[in-house]
Amino acid sequence: MSQEVKIVDAVVIGAGFAGLYAIKRLRDAGFSVQAFEAGDGIGGTWYWNHYPGARVDLECWDYSYSFSSELQDEWEWSQRYPSAQELMAYLEHVADRFKLRQQIQFNTRVEAAEFIEADNLWLVRTSDGKTRKARFLVPATGGLSVPKPPEIPGIETFRGEAYHTGRWPRQEPTYEGKRIGVIGTGSSGVQVVHSLAGKCKHLTVFQRTAVFVVPAKNHPLTPEMRQRARATYAERRSLSRITRFGIPAPMANESALDATPEERRAKFENAWINSQLLGFRQCYGDILANDESNEMVAEFIRSKIREIVKDPETSRKLLPYGFPFGTKRPCLSDTYYSVFNRDDVSLVDLKSTPIVRIVPKGVETSEGLIELDMLIYATGYDAFTGALSHIDVRGVGGRKLSDKWAAGAKTYLGLVAQGFPNLFTVTGPGSPGPLANMAMSIEQHVDWIADCMTYLRANRITRIDADKGAEENWMQHVQDVVSRTLYEKANSWYRGANVPGKPQLFLPYLGGHGNYRKKCEEVAAAGYLGFVLTRETTATGMADKAASRIAAAGLAGGAV
Ligand code: N01
Question: What cofactor does this chain's UniProt record say it requires (predicted)?
Answer without folding.
Answer: FAD
